[in-house]
Design brief:
The structure is a homodimer of 122-residue chains. With 122 residues, chain A is mostly beta strands. Helix content of chain A is 0%, strand content 60%.
Chain lengths: 122, 122
Amino acid sequence: MAIKHSQDVEVVQIPSGVKTTRQVLISAQEAPNFALRRFIMEPGGGMPRHTNTVEHEQYVLTGQARVGIANDVFEVKKGDVVFIPENVPHWYQNTGNETFEFLCIVPNKPDVTTILPDELPC
Amino acid sequence: MAIKHSQDVEVVQIPSGVKTTRQVLISAQEAPNFALRRFIMEPGGGMPRHTNTVEHEQYVLTGQARVGIANDVFEVKKGDVVFIPENVPHWYQNTGNETFEFLCIVPNKPDVTTILPDELPC
C-alpha cells in the first residue's frame, strides 16, 4: 500500500467494548514494525479496564474522554497524546456528545488483551 | 509520560523544508519501539524529494497536499493514510489554503535523511 482513504477501511465492532469500533489503517502485514489503528467510541461508549501485552501510542482525533492508566485518571480531548506502557491497566469512557476517535499505534508483536475485574471500592 | 497536550510541545523548523515545522509528540527516549511526530506545512510549504533510512506511517490530520512516493504522485487530504517504505524517495507540497498537518510514526532506529536532486525532465 502507499495511500488509503480511511473511510474505505472496514469498521469492526470490538466485542469487549461498549459502542466501540476499530479500523486497521496499516496492518502488521503491510508494514515491518508497527500497526496503525483508529478507534471510534460513540457517546456513552468506552472500553473496560484491561491490559495489553504491547504498548500503545495514541493521538486523539476528535471528541473527549476519561482515560484511566494504572491508578491515574485523565481527561483527554482532540490533539492530546497518550502513552500506555505494555501490561499497564487502562480504560476509556467517552464523556462527550460526539464520537471519541483516536489513533493507536502498536508494535508488530503478539498482543494479548486481558479484561480486568472492576476495581474494588476503597 | 502518560498524557501530553500537543499544543504544549515545542515546534521546530525543518531546515530542509519550506514553511515546514515538526513536533516530536512521543520521542524515541519516551517509548521503546517507535516515535510519534506531527508535521505542519503552511500554505505554499513542503519538503523536497528525499529519502529516509526508516519507513514512515502517516495520517493526515488537516489540509491537502500532493505527495510523491517513488515515481507516483498522490493527492491526499484529511483522514488519508500514507505508507512510505524505507529508502524510497518522497516529497510533499501543500496544495491548499490551510495548513497541511500529518502525523508521522517512525521506528526507533537511526534515520539518515538524504535530499535528492530534482528529477530530470523526461
